[in-house]
Specification:
The complex is a heterodimer. Chain A contains no helices and 11 strands. By secondary structure, chain A is mostly beta strands. In chain A, the strands form 2 sheets. In chain A, strands 2, 4, 5, 6, 9, 10 and 11 form a 7-stranded mixed beta sheet that branches. Chain B contains no helices and 11 strands. In chain B, a hairpin with a 2-residue loop joins strand 6 and strand 7. Classes of the chains: A mainly beta, B mainly beta. At the A-B interface, strand 5, strand 9 and strand 10 of A face strand 4, strand 5 and strand 9 of B.
Chain lengths: 115, 110
């Protein structure tokens, strides 16, 4: 069974530029999460989707971050404009959610560097 | 603020010893508890989940949960150098939402 797929794996951009990350969850997983992980810290939830509905986006900085999950499968997280403090690893995870287990499985992440 | 606390370490143990990793959490209504292993430069990998008080064993790993004390631990028996990683404790507070601790770095010395 294929795991969570993310792209790109690495991204270097200048501040004020836009950037987008893509995630494809494990097949059949209805719940999708975007996390941010800073060095030496645990992941922090940005947004959670149940199918195509964003059910928790309270930690998403809405002035510059946006996300979508069209058709309830793939998801895209966007930052516009990026700031130096956005440099981090952006992780996507998925789970069966209410249909089964709440165990979350992570993709490889996208390491963003803003210069 | 729902918190999950872990000692950042590093915890250093000799090869073959038992490594004991601890985690405390603040939200009494927490129902599900998870341990993730994260190698340097890699993403977290789920290694154990536990939902009820007591012990749960899976190979060399044992998770222990005490909801009254709001305490969850992970024991790694016969530690190997390949177990050297950061171990993240995660707590599900509200159904399908994880709060992570900062992680404990484990070093297993040959």
């Amino acid at each position: 069974e294929a795991g969570v797929v993310q792209s790109p794996r690495y991204k270097i951009i200048e501040k004020k530029q836009p950037v987008a990350f893509w995630c494809n969850p494990i097949s059949g997983h209805n719940t999708l999460y975007w996390y941010l992980q800073n060095l030496g810290q645990g992941p922090e939830l940005l947004i959670r989707y149940e199918n195509e509905e964003a059910v928790d986006d309270s930690q998403l900085p809405k002035d510059r971050f946006s996300a979508e999950r069209l058709k309830g499968v793939d998801s895209t997280l966007k930052i516009q404009p990026a700031e130096l403090g956005d440099s981090a690893v952006y992780l996507c995870a998925s789970s069966l959610g209410r249909q089964g287990s709440y165990e979350q499985y992570f993709g490889p992440g996208t390491r963003l560097t803003v210069t | 603020q729902k918190e999950v606390e872990q000692n950042s370490g590093p915890l250093s143990v000799p090869e073959g010893a038992i490594a004991s990793l601890n985690c405390t959490y603040s939200d009494r209504v927490s129902q599900s508890f998870f341990w993730y292993r994260q190698y340097s430069g890699k993403s977290p990998e789920l290694i154990m989940s536990i939902y009820s008080n007591g012990d749960k064993e899976d190979g060399r790993f044992t998770a222990q949960l005490n909801k009254a004390s709001q305490y969850v631990s992970l024991l790694i028996r016969d530690s190997q150098p390949s177990d050297s990683a950061t171990y993240l404790c995660a707590v599900d507070n509200a159904g399908n939402m994880l709060t992570f601790g900062g992680g404990t770095r484990l070093m297993v010395k040959p």
